[in-house]
Amino acid sequence: MTASNTPSNSTEQDKLDFKKILPVFVIVLIDLLGLTIIIPLMPLYAASFGADALTIGLLGAAYPVMQFIGAPLLGRLSDQYGRRPILVISQLGTLVGFLVLGFSNTLWLLFLARIIDGISGANIATAQAVITDSTTEKNRTQGLGLLGAAFGIGFVVGPIIAFVSLALSGNNYRVPAFAAAIFSLLSILLTWFWLQETLPPEQRGQATEKAGFSSRTLFQELRHPAVGLLLALMFAQQIAFGGLEQLLALFTLNRLGLNASGNAIIFVFVGLIVVVVQGWLIGRWSRRFGDRRLVYIGLAVLAIGLVFTALTPEQPLPTYSRERLEQELRSSGDFRTHENPTTRNLAVELPPDTNNGWLGISWMLVAMVPAAIGCGMLQPSINSLITKRVNRDEVGGMLGISAAFLSGANAIAPLIGGVIFQALGASAPFLLGGMLMAVLWLIAVLALKPGREESQPAGLARSAGGH
User: Fold this and answer.
1) Which sign does the torsion angle of CA 325, 330, 331, 333 carry?
2) CB–CB of 192/90 below 8 Å?
3) Contact indicator for 145, 284 with CB cutoff of 8 Å
4) Residue 1, in any domain of the structure
5) Treating both helix axes as pointing N-terminal to C-terminal, what angle do 395-424 and 359-388 enclose, rounded to 10 degrees?
6) Is 9 domain-assigned?
7) Sign of the alpha-carbon torsion through 105, 106, 107, 109
8) CATH number for position 348
9) How far apart are CA 385 and CA 374, in angstroms?
10) CA-CA distance, 335 to 326, in Å (whole number)?
11) DSSP codes joined into one string, 377-403
12) Span between the terminal Cα atoms of the chain, in Å
């Protein structure tokens, strides 16, 4: 027996090499800070150019739609030409998008900025491929979870930077756009000088017969015997959780009478839970339970969180005043700048101030725990399973397909949720989302069977996957 096969060395190989992961973690985090800085500002920025609610909704959909198109393309290109050059090119596009946004003086330039940023912001698929190249099957879920933790940190820190830049500039919306451009430039420099190429030249271009991006390609991958169900689960869980993210402010306004500041606290609370799950717990859980069981658990926990959210009792905080909140909503629009643009015109009934107390907000915070844990578990565990069930030369492209389904769900989730919210009431999107997750849990238990990552020894499975 060679030294490389000894139990001690095997254990060492199973540990995540943080030195390899750290560069891409920092790069993705800084890249995301640029994105999350401008997200809360876009509706008001567009309104300053005279855009109506429908136009703002289209502007909000432009970014995820272009991500939907760009993610598979960039993923395939990274398989062909290497991870690092494609990442740099995509980051340059993001920088251009932020600069166009900062210099915009007409509405169509806002659209152009979001389109450029969306198609080049699809570099997350390339970053996931870097993680895959730098991990083994034993620690890949933990590596992908750290990438998810970067998302969580970015979505907590980015809005804070936006708030500070607006305060220092006297509410000049161009300043946060330029701040985002600075972070984007920093991520380019870090990629160029710090990140090392993880896909050797001899392993590139081995899947040249693969077709380029098309909707037909996406639907074909849904029939992939090894990962088709996983792609469908990725899409469906984001429809449910994406609806939660986009409609939560309207729901808490209706049930709890929360204004923008109150909702900010809830979003930070959810973001911190996701960071803890994906940055610390997911690796331990993956090694203990396996990725397939994590998918089962994640679907069940997310279903519980969504249903409990829907059942939140109508009870505003003790300090709530309906009259004061109505005055705030009729004023300069502080609340509306934080709303999702696709739901700005929904009529939302405010709760009366005759039953104030702590039960409503306490219930909501408790419900957010399983909802955030479930979402934090699902994405890295599903993507990890995908990478383990395809060949090495397909990893970048397949992660691109996965990211495309995620972006597609992000584009339509607020539209679907908004229609349900308006037609059936505030609880309906979350209740139906929880029921959808419960059905998917049952389907996954029945149809998501052990793959080669469980049926073969680790070393043999890695060999079959092209490692």
Assistant:
1) positive
2) no
3) no
4) no
5) 150
6) no
7) negative
8) 1.20.1250.20
9) 16
10) 11
11) HHHHHHHHHHHHSS-GGGHHHHHHHHH
12) 21
Per-residue pLDDT of 60-115, as tens digits, reads 777 877 877 777 777 778 788 888 888 888 889 889 999 999 898 888 998 999 89
Q: Does residue 302 sit within a domain?
A: yes
Measure the CA–CA gap between 181 and 157, rounded to whole angstroms.
16
- Domain of residue 428: give its range: 18-197+211-464
Ranges of residues in the chain with a pLDDT under 50 are: 1-4, 53, 208-213, 331-347, 457-467
Phi-psi region of 304 (alpha: psi -120 to 50; beta: other; left: phi over 0): alpha
Number of domains, the chain: 1
Token pair of 93, please? 């596009």
Task: Read off the pTM.
Answer: 0.66
Distance CA 291, CA 308 (A): 25
Distance CA 118, CA 61 (A): 10
Contact 233, 444 (CB under 8 A): yes
Count CB neighbours of 1 within 10 A. Answer: 5
Assess if residue 163 is contained within a domain. Answer: yes
Spatial distance between the Cα atoms of 175 and 150, rounded to a whole number of angstroms: 24
- What pLDDT digit, counting tens, does each position of 185-243 carry? 988 888 888 888 877 776 666 554 444 445 566 666 666 767 888 888 989 888 888 77
